[in-house]
């Protein structure tokens, strides 16, 4: 595709202000990346959870995981059920 004489190549997804929008506009890329990042934070927290006070662990989870999940959640209105379940898996993991 050419725009004003410049060749433009389509991509599968783009990121703007931390929100990934994929070509199909179903937010799959955004959900996958968010869940992956949240699990990457939860794993080390789980490893140190026995060594720190419960209040400190709670503060870390809110600051590092819940705030990430909350950011841009207005973009997730009408999300497909399987993507909602994927997001909910983070919430289940943090309680476990």
What does this structure look like?
The protein is of the alpha+beta class and 96 residues long. The model has no long low-confidence stretch (mean pLDDT 89). The strands form 2 sheets. The chain has a two-stranded antiparallel ribbon with strand order 1-2. Helices cover 55% and strands 12% of the residues. It has one domain (2-95). A hairpin with a 2-residue loop joins strand 3 (13-16) and strand 4. It contains 3 helices and 4 strands, in the order E-E-E-E-H-H-H. Helix 1 runs antiparallel to helix 2 and helix 1 runs parallel beside helix 3.
Radius of gyration: 17 Å
Number of helices: 3
Query: Which residues sit in consecutive blocks of at least 5 with pLDDT less than 50?
Result: none
Q: In what range is the share of β-strand residues? A: 5-15%
**N-to-C SSE string, H for helix and E for strand:** EEEEHHH
Task: Please give a handful of descriptors for the protein shown.
4 strands, single chain, two-stranded antiparallel sheet, 96 residues, alpha+beta
State the gist of this model.
The chain has 3 helices and 4 strands, in the order ββββααα.
What layout of secondary structure does this protein have?
Blueprint: E1 2-3, E2 6-7, E3 13-16, E4 19-22, H1 28-48, H2 54-70, H3 81-95
Antiparallel strand pairs: 1-2, 3-4
Helix pairs in contact: 1-2, 1-3
């Amino acid at each position: 595709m050419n725009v004003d004489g410049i060749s433009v190549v389509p991509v599968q997804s783009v990121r703007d202000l931390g929100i990934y929008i994929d070509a199909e506009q179903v937010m799959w890329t955004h959900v996958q990346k968010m869940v992956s990042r949240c699990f990457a934070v939860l794993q080390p927290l789980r490893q140190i959870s026995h060594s720190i006070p419960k209040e400190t662990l709670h503060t870390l989870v809110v600051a590092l995981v819940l705030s990430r999940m909350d950011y841009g959640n207005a973009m997730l209105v009408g999300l497909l059920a399987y993507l909602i379940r994927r997001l909910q898996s983070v919430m289940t993991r943090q309680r476990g």
